[in-house]
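Sequence in, structure out. First:
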Amino acid sequence: MYPAIVPGTKIVKIVVFKRAEKFFTKTLLARAQHESTASTFALQSRVSICAMRTQVFACILLMAAFCSAQPASNLYPIQEGFVDSRGALIYYEVVGHGQPLVIVHGGPGASHDYFLPYLLPLVRTNKLVFIDERGGGKSSKCVDPKDYTVANMVEDIEAVRQALGLGRISLLGHSFGGVLVQAYAFKYQTNLSHLILGSTFSSTREINEALARMKAEMDPKDRDRINALEAAGLFGKGEIWEHGRYSEEYAKLAWGKGYFPFIYVNQPDPDYDPVAGNTTNAWDVYREMWGSDGEFVIDGNLKEVEYVDRLSGIKVPTLIIVGDHDESDPRMSKEMHEKITGSQLVILPRSGHMTFIDQPEMFLRAIGDFVAH
């Protein structure tokens, strides 16, 4: 096979030198026909030397061009694009050197953006492949919201793996993304070298119990107000452009006072805005999968997620990582660890749901060490 040509490389065309060589050879030999035998021999020697020099010069130029095409070891260019999967165009972004580590975000209805820049140090040892799930981020929307399913999103991951020719992959899923990668492992385990379950759950019944406990710990006045807003219906309120999302009051109460203590502990994001999710979330995906009855109960199509009894079928090396104050109660991670033979469990101290922000060094070291073996 010919070596790949890096875009922007100046390609030396040897054919030019070959033509020049033939031209000079013909000219000199024509002159030689009118000379003596001795002179002819001398001219032919000169022709050979000329041809040799031309070839050497061409080789030097070719080698110089090839060397200049090699990327610097400290350069990490980004490759991006879309993969057509079951009627949806799935956005992907690839960066880094090494074995592929595919990263699946939470939500549902979010994008890979919240991982950045926190996971970037992993590009030094791994080819990171971020995707945006169907309907979220830069991926295309589905005409029918019923196409937003765990099963379809599993096939989207597999479509990206095949299209990019990744072979066996390490697969990391965070939060809701952890549900997707568990489902992927149940179907496509032979395509995995490592599985990483980050701050996730294997049972909707169990995560609903954890969410209820979070709600119970809120200030009684805030909790009563949340209950009143939920009872009145959370959508179709306010101005017409606000009908498809939470009210600002509910977003602040739920994602602010309710969730915040379980999202950050050690290093709270100073830019965190509980209302921001109102305009960055893909609500069609969220309502179909999570549901429409608020932040403290999942009653969309994710109700079907009851994987605990299937976890023992996962045989690939598995890392389970969670914060000690995680929204995804660490008790669920301990249960996963008990069910998956040979799995590793890492509980990060003073950490909420955003483990890679609260404890970045511990998180990156745990991931890096795990996928390296």
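Second:
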Amino acid sequence: MTKTTIRYQPARRALSAGGITRRIAAVRDRDPKLATLRQIPIFSHLSRGELTQVAAHVDQVTTNRGGEELISEGTRNRTLVILLEGEADVSLRGTTLRRHGPGEILGLPSLLDGRVAGVTVTTASPIKALVASTLQFATLRQIGDLEMRFRSELSDRLRSDFLAVARPDEPAPAAEAVPAV
């Protein structure tokens, strides 16, 4: 009877041997939620770790048809909506002001200032979106420089709206990119 010796490598050596750590990183990069977040301009500058934190605090939702109210004018808004697919109309007292598409953020003003929603947001088509509740949004604001970027997004939108009213015959200028900090 011969004795069989089993040789093993300590866990650290085994994980780094054969490129396993590189394969784990490659799998992590293929996470569809992280890839989706990286395509959204407000999140595109974040590190992988920061994107992972954002991914943990947003949920993906879909609607099957247009006409669904996401945010109601005059009521407390509890949801940040980031459109991934489809379109949503923003209206004030029943008058459509603008149509938003993929990559655009809805519900930001009332979540930042804590007041009731100033407009109604209704889906114009079936949508796919990332959403964050009030509590999730409070956490998102703490990640990296997102607080500053959310406020910058809101400022750019206000400037664009003002120029559209002040000079209705001229196209609104493109928003300037926010530099990475």
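Remark: The two ends are 68 Å apart (CA to CA).
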